[in-house]
Amino acid sequence: MRRLILFVLTLIFLFSMTYAGNFGVGIIAGEPTGISLRLWQNKVNAFDFGIAWSIDANILHISADYVTHNYGIFKPTSGTMPFYYGIGLRILAKDNTNLGVRVPLGIVFIPKGTTLDFFFEIVPTLNLVPATNLDVDGAIGFRYYF
Asked: Which of 16, 46, 89, 115 is buried deepest, with most CB atoms within 10 A?
């Protein structure tokens, strides 16, 4: 498990050097709570990654999503506030490993002239391994872009 975390942190460092200005690191608070990462591919599409800890269930959550942003729904007077949706995977690591498919749904506020974003999301997840069931996570957070 330590090698996996070291590998992920190394990838984060390399991405931050390669994608200057498009790579964000921040905090995600909710269930679970941890680190949120976003790597913009263009103005509409991004990869979201999460490494978080569930305090209630004492489980490590690792997630990777591909999300698309719709800028036409919300029109703030300053900055942008797209609705985003996507698909991804979640791994829960405790005594045994669980694997699920995620469908993130959220809103991200990007203030004009800053290197920050603030987000809220709800993520229905279909757990597939070791058993099939439905789970829903929710969170708020922010990210700083390098």
From this structure: 46
Closest by Cα among 41, 21, 35 to 146? 21
Residue 18 pLDDT exceeds 90:
no
pLDDT value of residue 122: 96
Residue of 116, 129, 44 lying closest to 90 (CA atoms): 129
Closest CA to 104 of 94, 89, 82, 92: 89
Q: Which pair of tokens denotes residue 82?
A: 């797209």
Helix (H, G, I), strand (E, B) or coil at 103: coil
Half-sphere exposure of 79 (CA within 13 A, CB side): 13
pTM of structure: 0.84
Q: Report which of 74, 90, 94 is spatially closest to residue 82, judged by C-alpha positions.
A: 74
Residue 127 contacts residue 134 (beta carbons within 8 Å)? yes
Q: Which structure tokens are listed for 16?
A: 């931050």
pLDDT digits (tens, 9 = 90+) for 85-133: 999 999 998 888 899 999 999 999 999 999 999 999 999 999 999 999 9
